[in-house]
Amino acid sequence: MAKKRYLKSDFFDGYSLLGIVCGLPDFRATHFINQYGSFDFKKYKNFSLSQEKDTAFSWYYFSNEGMRRDYYLIQNKNGTDLLLPILRNFDYLLLMHGNITVQYLDELLPVLRNTPNVTAVFEQDLGKLKNSSLFIEKNELHILQQTIQ
């Protein structure tokens, strides 16, 4: 009988998450992050982990095709609602996918921290967050919905 071999893979491979503290509304925060971080985020349909429309959060997307990096700026707080309650201290989440190296993160963090009205930026470990796999899965489904429409 043939032995079965399983491919071990890290579900979060290629993903990085930054938590951003910024008291500005999403459109203003995105403006400053675009200006100082050399991004070009565009707003798309609101994002939600559940099917309820009452709990929708702003969702911005930017792709740097030359560097093979995708960026998703997602509102974590909408009034009293929280997208990821475990990260309640953060107003926005910057999910990055692709060619994200440690050197790039070391360069990006000071830039974001020096952005006007941004109080703090911290890297988060996706492997230690509850519901992080659901968060990434829903984000990927949201991407597909945006490209189909």
Structure report:
With 149 residues, this protein is α+β, with helices and mostly antiparallel strands. Helix content is 28%, strand content 32%. It is built from three helices and eight strands. It has helices spanning 26-37, 102-113, 132-148; strands at residues 15-22, 42-47, 57-64, 69-75, 77-78, 81-82, 92-98, 118-124. The protein has a six-stranded antiparallel sheet with strand order 2-3-4-7-1-8, sandwiched between helices. It is globular and about 65 Å long. The mean pLDDT is 87.
Largest sheet: 6 strands, antiparallel
Uncertain spans, ≥5 residues at pLDDT below 50? none
Strand line-up in the sheet with most strands: 2-3-4-7-1-8
The fraction of residues in strands falls at 25-35%
